[in-house]
Amino acid sequence: MNSLLLAANTAGYAAPPLWRVLTKTGYFIGLAGAIGTAVTYATTVRPALRSAADDGDAAALRTRSALHIACAGVVLLIAGYFQLAGRVARSGKGMPFGDALAPGRIGDYLGAPAAKGAWIAQGAVHLVQNVVLAATAAAMIALFAPAVRRHLDRIALAVLPLSLAVTLTAAVPTTAPADLDRWFDLVLDQIHIVSGTVWLGGLALLVSLAGARGRLGDGAGLLWADIWRRFSLVAMTCVGAVALSGLWLTWKHVGTVSQLWTTGYGIALLVKAALVLGLVAAGAVNQFWLMPRIARARRADAAAPLLHLTLRHFPAVVWGEVVLGVGVLVVLPFLAGSARSEAGSAKAVCSGSVFAAGAALALALGVSLYATAKASDALSRRPSPAAVAV
Ligand code: HEM
User: Fold this and answer.
1) Global confidence as pTM
2) Are 91 and 174 within 8 A, CB to CB?
3) What pLDDT, in 10s, does the model give residues 109-140?
4) Cα three-residue angle 35-41-44, rounded to 5 degrees
5) Which residue among 13, 200, 272, 318 is best mutated to probe the pocket of ligand 1, counting the most ligand atoms within 8 A of its Cβ?
């Protein structure tokens, strides 16, 4: 990534130090593991397991879900600590990251008084955020204990609002936002983070659960057909939300199209967009190739092809999506500064025409996602060729 940025004339661009890359990427991986897992368990896995025909399969996937959530809790706790140390290092001018790891330094930062004109100290906001983060991680980690797993559903449903609160509390502004524009920034940034982490965290949970296929019965294809169908709706909603909020963030930071390849920020964003396009392309394979075949195998009552499609083909594609998704989170810290300031172009100012363009984009995105779902449905209803091809 650094060599790519050095290739272009990005004089005004400052690549992030390694500790910044690791702490920011780690934090969003931790957040995806918490928010994405909790939302996907509540909207996709739990409802599918409740209507599962085979109790043995449901029990095996519940155990696996509990262990996945518990492991994600450990990642969240560690990533949270390093992200907090990263905040401390950035607040102390030139403080070595190693020093910022010291509990004393972190205590000083969290207890620092409010800045002039602020209604609350930034340290206090991050104190609340990290107390919520620790509570969320503790609830998740408790699922390592077999006795606690009986309460999997209740714990998973409690982790959902808690994990959302981890990112929402961090966004609390210490001074009142100056104008509507600033409010849009705050809200759309959080929509971006939540929809992105639900999408990636959900993919990671499902590919981890599919890894339990060795412990599932021959009839598990039906259960998994239901799981993939439910998640495709969640994923499509996330694609729409992350694209729309991403376009707002892009407009805020990129003034002209050419800044995408003439600034360090722009190049990082191009790399990110390419990775996201890969994710969307994989999603299209699921919608237009795999889902119709799964629906046809289901209608033909073809258990073996159904099992192969849902527990071999689908997870293979989703593994690819998870790798691309981690790539997106690794590129994130390189979105440092702004292409506008690098290129010396004016700040983005909101206007009626910008809102109108945003509304038109939202409509176009909504229509295209609806058309995607309808097309996938139509392909599923198409009469199956002689034998269900897998
Ligand atoms: C899988 C899809 C995506 C994920 C998981 C994702 C995730 C994120 C996250 C976590 C942030 C950091 C927000 C922060 O620090 O406050 C971010 C920033 C950003 N994202 Fe995305 N994003 C995705 C797709 C997109 C797309 C499609 C676009 C453009 C259309 C986009 C444009 C941006 C921009 C411009 C920023 C930087 C904002 C800044 O400099 O503060 N993202 N993204």
Assistant:
1) 0.94
2) no
3) 999 999 999 999 999 999 999 999 999 999 99
4) 120
5) 272
